[in-house]
């Protein structure tokens, strides 16, 4: 039986047992090892589906919400141009955000962001599965193609919702990834995948569908290993989303996720509990893990997540705000992945994780939590990378 024939038989069964009041298969998932569908069906039909032996598991879809422990705080933005490279390979941004400065230095309390540059970087793309992106924001302007944006719209899963960010969370995340002022990778491209509404609400099924969409889009562009997914969201443990992340990684797409903001063990949170995801927890300016930042085995890295300034919605594309959360830590790492992909070409998920681990600043996080990897991400600053051996020289 083909997949199409199976779905047709499922719809026929639901129509027969549901009296015509159930919609049947509403979404179909088909990417890598993740094969499934989302149905509206009576319980008796689900029982019969399990009895066929063709179904691995059935899980109820659930509503999830983006959350941040502190409401956004206004920021008096001062647009600052990046200074010219101090030599042929290094750019230094003076008066950078503390997050940018922290990931480009081994010690805290620095004020500049230093990173390597090349004239013609490779294309690197970050899929932001979130509340959307205000693609017209100044932060996402292209320096190589004036008048255009490096952020494009991918897909919108929120019914009757405009193709823009009505919440702000996704735009803030995107600014940390690739903003001209606030971004770790200011040349990277962004793709908006909107799965959360203006109130920050969404569903697991839409998040799974967005992961599949990103996999297919990256494959169609021939750029799977030059792309990364940023998932600054999550909820309680949910095996289907963990399986979906594993499938995306299995196809070669790196997935960076927020560890969570409930202060508990990361193993109780999805998708951060997925072993194939790069789960990121938060630190403050003193390299301390906040009480609300999740911890434990599964936390792969730490990155700045307190008082993070980035782009915000409204204001004619000039607004910014300050947020706290592992949602803010996650894009520092996704941006770092895009930066390396732009500098050195494609990375498999395993190569990305290895590079992050090899360069990380170890042992400096205060109260990292039992089982957490005590490692703050680091971009290498002025260190030369040998791509043949992937070692630091």
UniProtKB/TrEMBL annotation:
Q: Which CDD domains match?
A: Peptidases_S8_PCSK9_ProteinaseK_like
Domain Peptidase S8/S53: where?
124-363
Query: Tell me, what is an example of a GO biological process annotation in this record?
Result: proteolysis
InterPro entries per record: PCSK9_ProteinaseK-like, Peptidase_S8/S53_dom, Peptidase_S8/S53_dom_sf, Peptidase_S8_Asp-AS, Peptidase_S8_His-AS, Peptidase_S8_Ser-AS, Peptidase_S8_subtilisin-like, Peptidase_S8_subtilisin-rel
Q: Could you tell me which PROSITE patterns the record lists for this protein?
A: SUBTILASE, SUBTILASE_ASP, SUBTILASE_HIS, SUBTILASE_SER
Active site: which residues?
Answer: 130, 169, 327
Q: Quote the SUPFAM superfamilies the UniProt record gives.
A: Subtilisin-like
For this UniProt record, give its keywords in alphabetical order, as a comma-separated list.
Hydrolase, Protease, Serine protease
MF GO annotations: serine-type endopeptidase activity
The entry sums up its family as follows: Belongs to the peptidase S8 family.
Q: What is this protein called?
A: Peptidase S8/S53 domain-containing protein
Annotated organism of origin: Phyllachora maydis
């Amino acid at each position: 039986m083909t997949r199409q024939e199976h779905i047709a038989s499922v719809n026929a069964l639901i129509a027969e047992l549901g009296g015509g009041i159930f919609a049947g298969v509403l979404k179909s998932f088909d990417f890598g090892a993740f094969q499934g569908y989302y149905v509206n069906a009576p319980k008796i039909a689900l029982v019969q589906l399990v009895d066929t032996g063709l179904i691995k598991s059935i899980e109820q879809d659930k509503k999830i919400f983006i959350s941040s422990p502190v409401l956004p705080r206004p920021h008096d933005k001062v647009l600052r141009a990046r200074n010219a490279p101090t030599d042929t390979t290094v750019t230094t941004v003076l008066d950078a955000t503390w997050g940018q400065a922290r990931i480009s230095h081994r010690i805290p309390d620095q004020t500049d962001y230093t990173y390597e540059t090349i004239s013609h970087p490779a294309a690197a793309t970050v899929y932001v599965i979130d509340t959307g992106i205000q693609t017209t924001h100044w932060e996402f302007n292209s320096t190589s193609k004036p008048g255009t944006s490096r952020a494009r719209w991918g897909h919108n899963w929120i019914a009757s919702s405009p193709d823009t960010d009505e919440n702000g969370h996704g735009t803030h995340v995107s600014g940390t990834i690739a903003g001209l002022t606030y971004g770790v990778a200011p040349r990277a491209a962004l793709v908006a995948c909107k799965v959360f509404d203006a109130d920050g609400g969404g569903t697991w099924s839409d998040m799974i569908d967005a992961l599949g969409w990103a996999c297919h889009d990256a494959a169609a562009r021939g750029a799977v290993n030059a792309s990364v997914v940023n998932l600054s969201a999550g909820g309680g443990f949910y095996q289907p989303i963990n399986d979906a992340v594993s499938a995306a990684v299995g196809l070669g797409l790196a997935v960076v996720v927020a560890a969570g903001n409930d202060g508990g063990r990361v193993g109780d949170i999805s998708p951060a509990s997925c072993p194939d995801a790069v789960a990121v927890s938060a630190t403050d300016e003193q390299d301390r893990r906040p009480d609300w930042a999740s911890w434990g085995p599964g936390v792969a890295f730490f990155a700045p997540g307190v008082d993070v300034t980035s782009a915000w919605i409204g204001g004619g594309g000039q607004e910014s705000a300050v947020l706290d959360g592992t949602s803010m830590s996650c894009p520092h790492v996704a941006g770092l992945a895009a930066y390396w992909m732009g500098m050195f070409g494609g990375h498999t998920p395993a190569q990305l994780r290895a590079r992050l681990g090899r360069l990380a600043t170890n042992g400096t996080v205060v109260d990292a939590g039992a089982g957490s990897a005590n490692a703050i991400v680091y971009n290498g600053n002025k260190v030369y990378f040998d791509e043949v051996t992937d070692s630091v020289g």
